[in-house]
Amino acid sequence: MSGHSGVLTGKNRTRLLIAVVLLQILFLGGIAGSYYAVGWFGQEIKLKTAPVDPRDLLYGDYVTLGYEISQPEARLWKGTGERPAQDSRVYVLLKPANGLYEAAGIYDAKPAAGPGEVVLKGKVRSAWGESIRVQYGLEQYYVPEGTGRQLEDKARNMIVAVKVAPWGQAKIVGMEY
């Protein structure tokens, strides 16, 4: 029996180092790839913006956007319990209506989407009474430096084109003023 059990030899150490480096590269590539995959595999939808407190509308080089789907009616809650808990993950089923998408249901587990429907993943910011507030990660849109002031007034009433991947991740791909 060898006295080297449990000790890595130079060759094994090199293999382990290569494996660790490859795993790190795969992990970082997966994160970057998931963002681009939304563009490749996502379905494009259009959302109507809603007014946002003008004091917080513009900060630096991004515009703060609010959406009508960010404040869905509490009656749309289809999950367990009376309403979703604050900071919980939810899935909002969106259906087309007059060229835009509107909330049709809020779930605590991803529902099956029918033809033309999409499911957007979000996080509950608050839920009390008949009010639910959901954040989707689409609330800030970065703009070229110096153009934010021009968008300040328009941001209250514009249409935002969003690509939604089958797994619920989304990204903004354009705006209509």
TrEMBL record:
It holds the Pfam family GDYXXLXY. The chain crosses the membrane at residues 16-38. InterPro entries: GDYXXLXY. Keywords: Membrane, Transmembrane, Transmembrane helix. This is GDYXXLXY domain-containing protein. It comes from Paenibacillus piri. The lineage of its organism: Bacteria, Bacillati, Bacillota, Bacilli, Bacillales.
